[in-house]
Please model this.
Amino acid sequence: MIEGTIIRGRGGLYTAMDLNGETYVLRAKKKFRRMGISPLVGDHILLTPGEISDEHGWVEEILPRTSQCLRPPVANITLLCIVVAPQPAPDWLLVDKLMIYANREQLTPVLIVNKADIDNEQNTINLARDMYNKTGMDIFTVSAATGMGKEELLQRFAGHVCCFSGQSGVGKSTLLNQLFGLQVETGDISQKILRGKNTTRHAELFRFGNVTVIDTPGFSLLDMDAVFDPVLLQNFYPEFREYEGKCRFSPCYHATEPGCAVREAEKQGEINGERMERYRSLLKDCREKWRDRYD
Ligand SMILES: Nc1nc2c(ncn2[C@@H]2O[C@H](COP(=O)(O)OP(=O)(O)O)[C@@H](O)[C@H]2O)c(=O)[nH]1
Ligand SMILES: [Mg+2]
Ligand SMILES: [Zn+2]
Model:
C-alpha cells in the first residue's frame, strides 16, 4: 500500500497525493461508512491505486488524526491563521471566537493583520498588538498587495499545515495567491455575487515544500458557539494565567466578583479593556447557553 494525503474530495471521489507528488483518484472502502467516518481533506491515508489508468483506487486506512474540524471538514491542521485588515473594519469578537475555537481544537492561532499598505498610522496593527500581545499569540503585519511581510509569514508556516480564516474581504485569497503563487479567485463580495461565483466551495490542500495550506470555504460560526461550562471560558485567555489563584473567590469568573485580580489588572491597564469587555459578553452568552443546554 502507498501512503498519501487527501488533497481534495467531491461526491465520494477523493484525490490523494503521495510523497513524490503523484496523485490518485480513490473511493473509500465500505468499512469506513460502517465505522461512521469519512476521509477528510488533510487526512493521511494508506491507499491502493486503481489497476488500469482510468480506474479509481481505494482508501484503505485513515491514519490517526492530530486534529479534525467539522465545518469545514478538514483534518490535521496545525496552524489557524486569523486574518484581519483595516478594511473591512475588524470584527475583534470574531477574532476572539476563532482563538477560542483554535485552542479547543488543539490548533495554534496566529493573527495576520493584512493590507498594511492602507493601515493609516498603523492603527490596526497597533490596536491588534494592544489587545493580543499578552495572549502570546504571534501577530504579523503583511500586505498581500505589495508582498510586505511575506518572508516572516513563510518562515512561521514552515513545517505546518495552515488554514486561513476571518471575515470576507480581508484578503485571504489574495494572501494565498501572493504567498504561494496560487490562482485562487479574489475580489469584493458584490462582484462575486454579480458573477454568481463563490471563491472556495470545497476544501483543497496545497503543498509547497515544507508548507502545507488548506484553502477552505471558511469556518462556520456554528462550531464556534459550542456549549461548555462557562467556568472554562477563562482557560482560553492566556493573559489571565498569571493571576490564577489571586482572586478572592474560587472559582472566579472575573466578571463582577469583588477582589478579582484579573479585573484589577484590567484597571491597571495590564489587561486590555476591550478584550475584557468582549470576554464578559462571551461569558454572558456562554452562561445562557449552558443554562438552556437541556431545552
Ligand atoms: N490595499 C490592499 N488591498 C488588498 C490587500 N489584500 C487584498 N486586498 C483586496 O481586498 C479585496 C478582498 O480580497 P480577497 O482576497 O478576495 O478577500 P477574502 O474574501 O478574504 O478572500 C480585494 O479587492 C483585494 O484586491 C492588501 O494587502 N492591500
Ligand atoms: Mg476568499
Ligand atoms: Zn477573578
User: Anything to note?
Assistant: Residues 190-198 have pLDDT under 50 and may be disordered. The chain has three domains: 2-62, 79-219, 227-291. The two ends are 49 Å apart (CA to CA).
